[in-house]
Amino acid sequence: MMEMKLFESKSVSVSEIVHLGRTYSSPFLNFKNILGVKFSPQICACKGIVLKVTCASTSDNTYLPEKAIGSIGQGKLSLSYRINGTNGTSSRLYCSDNRVLHAFDDEYGGVIVDPERLPANPNAFVSILHASLSHWKNMGKKGVWLKLPVERSELVPIAVKVLVVQEKHRAPASVGLWKIPTGFVLESEEIFSGAIREVKEETGIDTEFVEVIAFRHAHNVAFEKSDLFFICMLRPLSTQIIIDDLEIQAAKWMPLVDFVEQPLIQEDCMFKKIIDICIARLGQRYCGLSAHKMVSKFDGQLSSLYYNVVQNQDFNCGAS
């Protein structure tokens, strides 16, 4: 199962963020050219129309569209008011006819979507997801939890958003392109630390490192040096964007589907492969490299070793 969190705009927590980075190998390290790192998050947050039609719920606080009520015995239905088992308060349930995902309340004021009752058609999922988020937001829900089974991984690009930017200083061919944030890691800075810092500086988004997804190695790039470009996954801890006016023209959360469909992305075979890898990671069909602190007996230095965790009890491929 892949778990994603969908929250209202002021408190959205996302499934994950992807960040890209670059580093130059050189006999003399200039801290401004050492390494570039940036990632883009995939956030589950959508806006939709507000449809308010009263509906009922089952005794376990499961939300049901009105058309589904007729197939359930009256003994299993409550009225349009339900009692909150935690504090005894009541709240009215609203939903649109066949336009809200089947879900039930959690004990923290959120909603848990039933992964076994998701729409079979991806296009229907898009529409219903948008309407459901709007509906739950109007109900004052603090968060929405969605777990996608591996066999439904085709829904990942629909349920996910990425953090994208438009740079102020860009080549004419890149005008209008929304790209994943990128940057450079400073001298003596960890790859994951540089990724977190660059995202914060350019977009104001706080994140935590998950893993390195892949990296590209090219030669004769800047200063005729070799270039390492890291693709990492970060988990967003905030969602309010505050751009760096010196470098960034604009930034936003963009549906992954829209991001991938940009012509410049479609025409770049390497970047399309990067997107495929990221989607596979979200669908738990791929594992990245986690950072592990270790001390080598050879030099006595604390270092970061990046590798896949293979122990089942500490497996890092499960979605966060």
TrEMBL record:
This is Nudix hydrolase domain-containing protein. PROSITE patterns: NUDIX, NUDIX_BOX. GO terms for molecular function: ADP-ribose diphosphatase activity; NAD binding; NADH pyrophosphatase activity. Residues 145-276 form the Nudix hydrolase domain. It comes from Quercus rubra. The keyword Hydrolase applies. Keywords: Hydrolase. Belongs to the Nudix hydrolase family.
